[in-house]
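Self-study notes.
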Amino acid sequence: MATRASEGDGVPEVPSTVQRYIDETPQWRDGTPAGAGGMTSMQSRIWWLASAGKFFEGLIVFLIGVALPLITAYWSLSTVETGLLTAAPLAGIMVGATALGGLSDRFGRRQMFLIEMVLFTLFVLGATVAPGFVVFLICLLGMGIALGCDYPTAHTMISETQSTASRGQKVLSAFAFQAVGAVAGTLVGVAILTNTDSLDSWRLMFGVVVVPAALVAVGRLFIVQSPHWLANVGRVDEAQVELKKLLDRTPRYPSVVSLATERSTEAAEGQKLGSLFRRPWRRSTILASVPWFLQDLGTYGIGIFTPTIIATTLGDVDHNASSSSAIIHNDLLGAEGAAFIDTFLLVGIVVAILLVNRLGRMRLQIIGFVGCAVGLAIAAASTYATGTVQTVLIFGGFILFQFMTNLGPNSMTYVVAGEVFPTSLRGMGAGMAASFAKVGAVLTSFLFPILLVSWGTSTVLAILVGTSLLGAVITWTFRIETTGKSVEDIDSMFGDEHPGPPELAARN
């Protein structure tokens, strides 16, 4: 027990820390747990609202993949304009993750958690009614900036309000909604394409997102500020108030919250971006950023263009289609195949949730990278086959890729980026890692339409096999295992008496 209650009065004997209060389970005098140690209503609310942000990211990115042929034909876009369109939301994420996400270290987690969703809602509405390509492109960029801010803030809101034992599973469970959103995006596209013969039906695809996004923005008005952040910046009295709201349960426990008044010695230094590239945080920065970059090369390239690759590889579509009905038919064929394949993102994340505390972050990330390489190699081999064999290879390869990516690197890189930095740097560090990762996403989303035509599917997939294997190597080289470590345990590794993150390296 981290904070013992005095017999009879329930008052803590000595000031404790935020995480020890969160981790504590109430118990009777004989040591029997009182059964009130589960998620409180506020913890649950924060988790659901953070999960919604990941859902919208998956929904929008994959919905663009379905809507792309319609938008291209609607505005008669060139190949370069199509590349800009697919790259815009990812470029926005790249900018927003650092430019806005890092502000949560300075102004607070809750403030940015709310602002990002308000911005997202406004830009989705703008995209729905956009009068031309340029306005639509700006709205996609704006959506990306808002979603980029969500990367570090959603993670920190969860990790700084949940127990140490459940933190990894809670973060992964929220991240799973990215896969739910991806499947939902393709299903929404299929449903609309099945019931329309108009090229501008892409407006309806984006329009259905507006109301749910607005409701999530309203919900984020009614959550607490991160007690960890408040305590870290020296606002201990406010941290005690917010911590009591966070842990409000029936019967009330703890009845009194008394926090230590020490402020992190890293708070001032942690505000500077340059500190991420110096010891002791440089190793954390490399681990959080480079594997995520390599993962996003495949995740977004394959994810966005799965419908296109399927429709192109399979031989029963009209590749020169120009009529609205033919374009919609081809798009529907690819979308239906992608919807089936994308369900394995969900299977992968479910298995990851079950194994993350047993195998650890690093093992799953390495296993996942290798599995992704195998899946992409199988898909690449499909271009040399025909008929049923070709179909089996392309679907089997992509299914294995989607499963392994969410079992390992796609989910673990997100978890790790929010865990290998101290509280004073968590928002900025996770945001910077997400920004660097989205450089890879932007490159593939912009170049994929061009490279698929110029180099062919097999060559592009072969390159991604190599990047996946490189991700496994870098993960092993710079590994830092945070499984079982509390937020405060991780913070303590950055003190003067410790040499830094390498001390957290996996020993199992």
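Second protein, same conventions, sequence then structure:
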Amino acid sequence: MTFTLTPTYDDNPRLADLVGRLRDFLSGELAEYEADRQLTPETRLGREVLEPVWKRSRELGFYGIHLPERFGGQGLSFTELAALKEEVGASGRVLSHSVLGDMGGPLRAGSIFEFATEVQLEKYLLPVIRGERACCFSLTEADAGSDVRAMRTTATPDGDGWRISGHKVFSSAGPFADFSVLVARMAGTEESYSAFLVDLDSPGCAVLDGQTPMSGQHIESDIVLEDCYVGPEQLLGRVGDGLRVGLGRVTANRLLHCPTVLGNARRALQLTVDFAKNRQAFGAPLAALQSVQHKIADLATTYYAARSMTYDALAALDAGAKPRTEAFMCKLFVAENAFRIADEAVQIHGKAGLVRGSEVEWLFRRLRMFRILTGSSEIQKNGIAKDLLTA
């Protein structure tokens, strides 16, 4: 894998075409759409803003592109999907998360397609693919983060269905979702969990504003349930399959978080290179200072290493391997070093990097979060050590 801040895919003509068209959409039509509405990363996003992007992305073939052809996708490999996710992350677009379906769309639904019945496909998932409905994922609770088995949201049998009570937090896409993929403990058990499709307008279900993360994005909700009834047709998979549904394809999902973050890091690095070239200091461009040159060289080398290991693990996944340890390593290395890139980017920008509203300042806040989101760095280290010491 060669180093460049503008990757090319000459060995894969289909991917090269997709990346080219995606870049055009992100920097052209979508950029204009955001500018017309004066959107920032901290704008509260409503369905009236998001749905046109979902549907336009679907028209262009990007929304749900990873899905099999029978669902209107192109059946992308993990590596191909990663390349598109990296471009989305590197675009600097506020609504980039809505182009491939990360926020409320087919990518948010994750692996539940393999568990869904035909009825569930028709009512819930196919409308998501078409950009007509949106979903969120509700697993985390105030005292159940990495330790998901500490959850207290409970499903109690009621006839053929269940009554669910509990309080979920950090349900991403919750503010504009129609339903949640929600995991609950089965009443009277300690180790049995089930997954349900919960309509968020159901009696006994309330969607509340969640806490605002340091990125400033208003994309999180609390889902509060009090004797909320779900019928047997809303059970995903079988009773007791909840964690398998909720954490399905965990290695693939862990790896696929990395390309978006690599894209964010690439954007921070590109902004820094451009700033160093154009910022005048002591009668010359900032880039003339050897100290700045060395920082940029270090950051580019770190980015290259993080990207190379990620795509190596993705290639193994595509080849049928299960790179579990490598996925832990990639999440750890990408998270820590993407933030390092953002930190040094702020340092090189100086005062310009400290100003709220500066893109590099927002990237700093966003990339700091990834050291905790989707499993903290410490959790990744636990996984690596366990795999090595119990082999």
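Instructor comment on the second fold: Strands lie at 135-138, 154-158, 161-172, 179-186, 193-199, 205-209, 220-230, 235-236, 280-281, 284-285.
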